Amino acid sequence: MATHRYNTLSFALSVFFLLLLSPPCAAASRPPRDLLHSSCAQARYPSLCVQTLTNYANPAMKPLDLAQASVKVSLTHARTLFLYLKTLKVQTTSSSGFTKRQRVALSDCVEQISDSVAELSRTLNELQHLRMGTFQWQMNNAQTWASAALTDGDTCLDGLNDGTADGKFKLEVKRRVTDVAMLTSNALYLINRLGDSSTGKPPINSHH
């Protein structure tokens, strides 16, 4: 009988400790998702932020990794947009279906998105080479370049909105430029969030 009570008590204690330890174990499996959602929650386009960065989530993810990933996504889309606009520019040059003002607007967009690509490249490079002694200066650079890339996209859209383009030409270009602008806006937010949450020490992995 004593042995039976001892076994029953041992089993009860085992279940108790198992239940006690389960919540932390479950929580430990959620950090990548929690970091992603909490970081994107206040972005200008939170759903887009989560959607485009979900594949980058991993157990070792840090705010810096998330900021870098957001810039990579924006840069990839900006490069694709630049190639599209460049090809379209060639087509408009040889086509009589476009007005002179449309060609000028498109030509301006090509230059502006080219600048965006260069600025986002600089932004990513800066975030990938943060150093303890120059962290704040480098963060300011990243913020400035990402902001400039966003401004270039807005300038392109302004040119398309002032009556220089219409029809399918205008709608498709605007859709693609807006897509890049939204991604860049989210990237800038995550960069600003990274800088604001810092205490002066860069959240740098040892391999950086």
From TrEMBL:
Q: Which Pfam families does the annotation name?
A: PMEI
The GO terms describing molecular function are:
enzyme inhibitor activity
Q: Which UniProt keywords apply?
A: Apoplast, Disulfide bond, Secreted, Signal
Principal place of residence = secreted
Q: Name one GO cellular component term.
A: apoplast
Domain Pectinesterase inhibitor residue range list: 31-190
Q: Where in the cell is it found?
A: Secreted, Extracellular space, Apoplast
Q: Which InterPro entries match?
A: Invertase/methylesterase_inhib, Pectinesterase_inhib_dom, PME_Inhibitor
Signal sequence span per UniProt?
Answer: 1-27
NCBIfam families, alphabetized: PME_inhib (TIGR01614)
Assigned protein family: Belongs to the PMEI family.
Q: What is this protein called?
A: Pectinesterase inhibitor domain-containing protein
Native source organism of the sequence: Canavalia gladiata (Sword bean)
